[in-house]
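From: lab user (bench 3)
To: helpdesk
Subject: output format question, protein + magnesium ion

Hello, I'm new to running complex predictions and I'm not sure whether the block I got back is the full result or only part of it. Here's what I submitted:
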Amino acid sequence: MIIELDPLMTWVIVIGALVVLVAAFLIGRRYGVRRTLNTMRRYAHPANLSDEVIDDAARYRAALIVNPTKTDVRNLAATAEAICRFEGWNPPLVLETTPEDSGEGVTVRALDEGVDVVIAAGGDGTIRAVASALAGTSTPMGIVPLGTGNLLARNIDLVLDKTEWALRIALWGRNREIDVGMAKTAPDGDTHIFTVMTGLGFDAAVMADTSDDLKARLGWLAYVEAGSRKLTGKPSHVKVTFDDEYRISARVRSVLGGNCGKLQGGIQLLPQAVIDDGMLDVLIVSPKNLGQWVGVLASIAGRRASRGLHTNIRKCRKVVIEAGDDVDIQLDGDPLGQSSYLEMEVDPSALTVRVPTVEQRKQIRAEAWPV
Ligand SMILES: [Mg+2]
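Helpdesk reply: Thanks, we reran it on our side. This is the complete output you should expect:
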């Protein structure tokens, strides 16, 4: 039997089909195809309606690596769990850092579990440790900034004081590939990853001399306090080799290699440093007395891009610093002991980080400035 459709019926069917297609497309775009299909599957099989039995394997899962000295772990884990549940993710795998494992080991464990994103909750030290394990993989890193400097978070324009937003950005933010720095303190030594800056001399001596207690009480002013005590130290004689060829020899207070250059309070220590240009910006600071330090500060405040008063900045891919004696070294603010050798190199686009999408930025702004 042939079903005869009158022309009106045919149009109704064609338009109906189009409406369904457009609706499916819009829903897919708005909520994500994977999540929408999962939700539909739940409603198609009422037995699955209780949260536990749904296809857990199909849902995303995050790992949350927390430095327990910076926050209340149970509180943060509860917030993360609530947000994950709300966003249709599996409960997060919560792991704590310890004095022995500042984050690298637990991140490797999280990668073995096959998580979709690793969220580092801590200061730049924790972030550096997590990044060490994630660099070179395609698993993105989310950041909940809980430190004194939060320099990486500042340099990629994350929200600093809204934990819930930081978590949402970690789950649904945009993936951005950034460079990481690689440092060695001996020609055949271990490679240490850094995301912000590594330095030798004055800055490292300050980091080594700033007490955690004072950092907790004064924040970044603790560095100023330690810095003022170190201003009149003795300079070191160093040979600096850029990209295996250009060499300079100087008496300096500090040599700093930066993957990016923004510090607290909007200070641009390295005004031309870009976090994904495949280059390191190397700053040499060489004041001989307190008066010349004033010149250094003026050059930094004036955002001198290359040559300032007793400062010099140069872009390169690799730099080797050989000092006449052992000098303090710091990586992203963590003291790394003393050495007379420091080699820094950039590994381009080695790390994926989650940054806010345009839509998320709009929402954050709307919350901050209610109409
Ligand atoms: Mg760079």
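A quick orientation on your result: The CA atoms of residues 100 and 106 lie 11 Å apart. Let us know if anything else is unclear.
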